[in-house]
Design goal:
With 350 residues, the protein is an alpha+beta fold. The chain is 33% helix and 23% strand. A hairpin with a 5-residue loop joins strand 3 (28-30) and strand 4. The chain is globular, with a radius of gyration of 22 Å.
Length: 350
């Protein structure tokens, strides 16, 4: 162990505060990018008093799918109002933030090397879980607190810029969503058609083990990057698990993994209309299965939608193409900034 390294268990402790007084019904999950998000699990009829109550500056992690996703979904909660997370999650806090800063620790959790080490510690179950004891045995560098805060401030300057660009993109996409609904849902439809008449679906394949710059899409968006592709200018749909029905648009080449389905238009060269159509259908509600949610091509093919006007599709795609040029430019800037943040994360171990 390097001189400034210590085991994580010396600096964190489990906490188990339950929602017994029904303080909130806002259920959160954690995505593989290590951010809290609204849970997609069906909790109707569930006793939420058994869920864990998380408050500001506390951590939560999902230890159950590390082997499958090759990442430990862990996040630092930083909102004023409390929320609840699954009883199966580990919830923990820093013992003394005069020694270890919470934001610095979260930076360490974001390192790809941290996920690789967690993956090596997973058990032999189908999904590959990790134990609390294994997490506590992990090592990390703990420089003086002043140095930690300096590193955190540099990292936050980059991530705030990323968040600004992403917010601009979200606003542009929201604007197009409004245009889409106004153009195609302004009056009651007199005719309906099936999705199979508008687009063709196909399943992805196991992601390559090679590295590169081409995005690999799973059910929760971009999982990793490779040097191979099996789709281009397509809409991606989460196929299995809690993220089935999630919809993404990739205008360039990509690899579609076996956790996703791709969609290609039968009537136009652009995929903008398809993207907004599929996003508006709340596809998660069409899944089958309870323990493991699943969307299939057959389900998608048979969903009925108002029959669109081909000319109107062309006009909408023209508007969307112009807006997505700005979105794409912002995405390029986000990628550049993420490379800077990744470089900063990599230097934590030096």
């Amino acid at each position: 162990m390097k001189s400034n390294y210590d085991i994580l268990g010396n600096h964190i402790r489990l906490i188990d505060t339950r929602n017994r007084e029904s303080i909130t019904d806002r259920v959160l999950g954690i995505n593989i990018d290590k951010f809290f998000m609204p849970s997609v699990a069906n909790v109707i009829g569930t006793d939420l008093s058994k869920y864990k109550l998380i408050t500001k500056r506390k951590f939560a992690c999902n230890p159950m799918h590390v082997g499958r996703d090759e990442r430990l979904p862990v996040a630092l909660y930083d909102e004023e109002e409390p929320a609840i997370v699954s009883p199966a999650y580990f919830m923990f806090e820093v013992i003394d933030n005069r020694i270890l800063n919470e934001d610095y620790l979260m930076m360490w959790f974001r390192r790809p090397e941290f996920d690789r080490i967690c993956w090596l510690h997973t058990d032999g179950s189908v999904r590959g879980g990790i134990t609390w004891d294994d997490i506590c045995r992990l090592e990390l560098p703990i420089p003086p607190i002043e140095k930690q805060i300096e590193i955190v401030n540099s990292y936050k300057a980059i991530t705030k810029r990323i968040a600004l660009k992403q917010k601009i993109n979200d606003n542009l996409e929201s604007m197009l969503t409004a245009v889409y609904f106004e153009q195609f849902y302004s009056s009651k439809a007199s005719e309906y058609t099936k999705l199979s008449d508008l687009m063709v679906f196909g399943n992805g394949k196991s992601r390559p083990k090679t590295n590169g710059t081409i995005p690999v899409y799973g059910g929760n968006g971009v999982l990793s990057y490779t040097d191979k592709y099996n789709a281009e200018n397509t809409v991606l749909i989460g196929r299995v698990g809690a993220y089935c029905g999630s919809v993404y648009l990739e205008q360039s080449i990509c690899w579609v993994s076996d956790n996703a389905i791709f969609a290609k238009s039968k009537i136009t060269n652009d995929e903008f209309f398809d993207y907004f159509l599929l996003k508006g259908l709340n596809l998660f509600n069409h899944h089958v299965g309870t323990g493991q949610q699943l969307l299939t091509q057959d389900i998608l093919n048979n969903i009925e939608v108002p029959k669109p006007d081909i000319e109107q599709i062309g006009l909408f795609n023209m508007k969307a193409k112009s807006v997505f040029e700005t979105i794409s430019a912002n995405k390029c800037e986000i990628i550049r900034l993420k490379k800077l943040s990744d470089l900063l994360l990599a230097r934590l171990a030096s």
